[in-house]
Write a structure and sequence with these properties.
α1 packs across α12 and α8 runs parallel beside α10. This protein has 281 residues and is of the alpha/beta class.
Length: 281
C-alpha cells in the first residue's frame, strides 16, 4: 500500500470515527500531541488544525502535569484535554509557538543541545535526526536547522516550556550506562546552563522501544519528573506515573488522518507494543 493510499484510508477512518463516536474520549483523558516540522508554507494548515482541536478539546497547561500524574486525574474532568509538544526544536517551530501563545496555549519544545551547537546543523540534522527528509514538506533552511538558545529563551518568555530530547538524539537501549548518562543527564545540564532552568521534561528519541531500557528509564526518572515517549495511548488509563504516551501527528497531514492519529481506533495496533514497553520497565 502506498503512503498516499494509506493516508487516504486513515483520513476516511478518522473522519468516520469522529462522526460515529463524537466526544467518546473520557473527560479525564489527556491527549499529548507529538509534532515535528512546521514549515512556514504550512502555517495555514496548522491554524486550521488548531481551530478544530480547540473546539473539541480543552487546553492543558504543562504546569498541571504534576497534579494529573499524582493520582488526581479524577479532578480533571472537563476534557478531553490536549497538550502540544514538538520534537527536535526546529527553527520553523518558532512561528507556531507565537500562534499558540496568541491562543493562550503553552507547549513543550524538546531540544537537542548538540544540534543547536553544531557547526553545520543541516548536516547534523540529516546525519543524526532525520536522514530521510520529505522534500515535499521541508524545503527551506529553517526546516532543517534548530532554534538558537536566544530563540528558546524567547519561547520561555512567551510561556512555553523547554525539555530535553537527549544530548545528541542518539539514545539506544544497548548503550553502556556511561553513554546513556551522557545523553540523559548532560542534555539537562546544558539546557540549564543556557536557559537557567532545570527542565523536568525528557523525551526519548527515535522509537522508545529501541531507545529506552529499564536502566535508562531509571536514569531518566532520577533526573526528570516526566518521560514523554513515542508510544501512543490513553494517559488516563495507563497508570504509569511520569511516563507519558503521545500521539504522533503532523501539520501537513489531512484532517482525517490527524483525527485518526488522536482517536481510539488507531490504538488497537499499539496495545502489544505498549504492554511490551511497560513490562520491560
Amino acid at each position: 500500500m502506498s503512503l498516499s493510499l494509506a493516508f487516504r484510508l486513515k483520513s476516511i477512518l478518522g473522519l468516520l470515527e469522529s462522526k460515529l463516536t463524537q466526544r467518546s474520549q473520557s473527560p479525564c483523558e489527556l491527549v499529548v500531541l507529538n509534532l515535528h516540522s512546521t514549515p512556514h508554507n504550512r502555517i495555514g494548515d496548522f491554524e486550521r488544525m488548531l481551530h478544530w482541536m480547540k473546539k473539541e478539546y480543552t487546553a492543558f497547561h504543562p504546569d498541571h502535569l504534576e497534579a494529573y500524574f499524582a493520582g488526581r486525574i479524577s479532578s480533571f474532568n472537563k476534557g478531553p484535554y490536549i497538550l502540544f509538544t514538538f520534537d527536535d526544536g526546529l527553527k520553523n517551530n518558532f512561528t507556531t509557538a507565537k500562534i499558540l501563545s496568541q491562543h493562550g496555549l503553552s507547549a513543550i519544545y524538546f531540544v537537542v543541545p548538540d544540534f543547536i551547537d553544531a557547526i553545520d546543523p543541516i548536516d547534523y540534522y540529516r546525519a543524526h535526526i532525520r536522514p530521510d527528509i520529505d522534500s515535499f514538506v521541508d524545503t527551506q533552511p529553517e526546516d532543517f536547522t534548530p532554534m538558537s538558545w536566544s530563540e528558546l529563551n524567547e519561547l520561555q518568555m512567551m510561556g512555553h516550556h523547554i525539555g530535553s530530547h537527549t544530548k545528541t538524539h542518539r539514545l539506544w537501549h544497548t548503550m553502556t550506562t556511561e553513554e546513556s548518562l551522557d545523553e540523559v543527564r548532560l542534555s539537562q545540564q546544558i539546557i540549564e546552563e543556557h536557559l537557567g532552568i532545570r527542565s523536568p521534561y525528557f523525551c526519548s528519541p527515535n522509537n522508545s522501544l529501541m531507545s529506552v531500557s529499564a536502566d535508562i528509564q531509571q536514569q531518566i526518572m532520577s533526573n526528570y519528573r516526566f518521560h514523554f515517549t513515542t508510544l501512543p495511548g490513553k494517559n488516563a488509563d495507563q497508570g504509569k506515573a511520569g511516563m507519558i504516551l503521545r500521539r504522533n501527528i503532523e501539520v501537513h497531514w489531512p484532517e482525517g488522518a490527524q483525527r485518526y492519529a488522536i482517536g481510539s481506533w488507531d490504538l488497537m495496533r499499539w496495545r502489544g507494543k505498549i504492554q511490551q514497553f511497560q513490562t520491560r520497565l
